[in-house]
């Protein structure tokens, strides 16, 4: 029962009834596998045929640098998908996936999922959902490249915050990152990011508290600076 609840929260199964989800999983002959903490699920350089969904526990996604150091790129929790882009493209994985704790994974063959025969409406919805997931991740990466291409950290911060304001249709918005995750996303040092945000706030360009931001117009920026001068 708990597994069905977790899968129902996974975007891959959006719009499917519990019965449809069960039928399509049986048709694709999915596999479950348990891993101990520290065990490798996917090695960098490996070409996966399957993608995974975390059922229990959690994973870490690691990037091994040429220097020999390892960078934590992201984490995965129950209900989240990983390795789908590599399974879809047939390209070698650029990352290593490791169990962060005792973990159970549901492995799904990308080839089985994309086979046209069988599954009916549920199979078609599953494929549609996967295309949406891949498109969203591509857009996320394209936006990140756009922000990282800016010359200075100040420009990167303003580029990212401007995108969030446009996406949410307001100059007052919340971002999905805490300070460390935002620093990681912008490939910046956390203390340097905090310094830039502090300076932008003193200049009246923005105000923020934790993950809540307000971007100011030029007139508002002048007013905010004047308020700061009188404090």
From TrEMBL:
Domain HTH crp-type: residue ranges: 151-219
Domain Cyclic nucleotide-binding as annotated: residue spans: 12-115
GO MF annotation list: DNA binding
Keyword Transcription among record annotations: yes
Keywords: DNA-binding, Transcription, Transcription regulation
Signal peptide from the UniProt entry: none
A single GO BP: regulation of DNA-templated transcription
Protein name as annotated: Crp/Fnr family transcriptional regulator
Taxonomic path: Bacteria, Bacillati, Bacillota, Clostridia, Lachnospirales
């Amino acid at each position: 029962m708990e597994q069905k609840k977790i899968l129902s929260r996974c975007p891959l199964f959006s719009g499917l009834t519990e019965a449809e989800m069960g039928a399509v999983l049986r048709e694709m002959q999915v596999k479950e596998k348990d891993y101990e903490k520290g065990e490798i699920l996917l090695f960098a350089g490996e070409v996966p045929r399957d993608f995974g969904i975390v059922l229990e526990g959690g994973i870490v996604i690691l990037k091994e640098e040429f220097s020999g150091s390892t960078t934590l790129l992201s984490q995965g929790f129950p209900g989240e998908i990983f390795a789908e882009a590599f399974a879809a493209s047939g390209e070698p994985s650029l990352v290593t996936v490791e169990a962060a704790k005792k973990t159970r994974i549901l492995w799904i063959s990308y080839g089985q999922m994309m086979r046209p025969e069988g599954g009916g409406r549920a199979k078609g919805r599953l494929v549609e959902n996967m295309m949406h997931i891949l498109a969203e991740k591509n857009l996320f990466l394209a936006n990140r490249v756009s922000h990282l291409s800016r010359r200075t950290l100040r420009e990167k911060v303003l580029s990212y915050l401007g995108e969030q304001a446009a996406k949410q249709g307001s100059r007052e918005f919340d971002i999905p990152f805490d300070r460390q995750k935002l620093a990681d996303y912008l490939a910046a040092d956390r203390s340097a990011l905090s310094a830039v945000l502090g300076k932008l706030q003193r200049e009246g360009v923005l105000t923020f508290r934790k993950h809540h931001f307000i971007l100011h117009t030029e007139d508002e920026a002048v007013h905010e600076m004047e308020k700061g001068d009188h404090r």
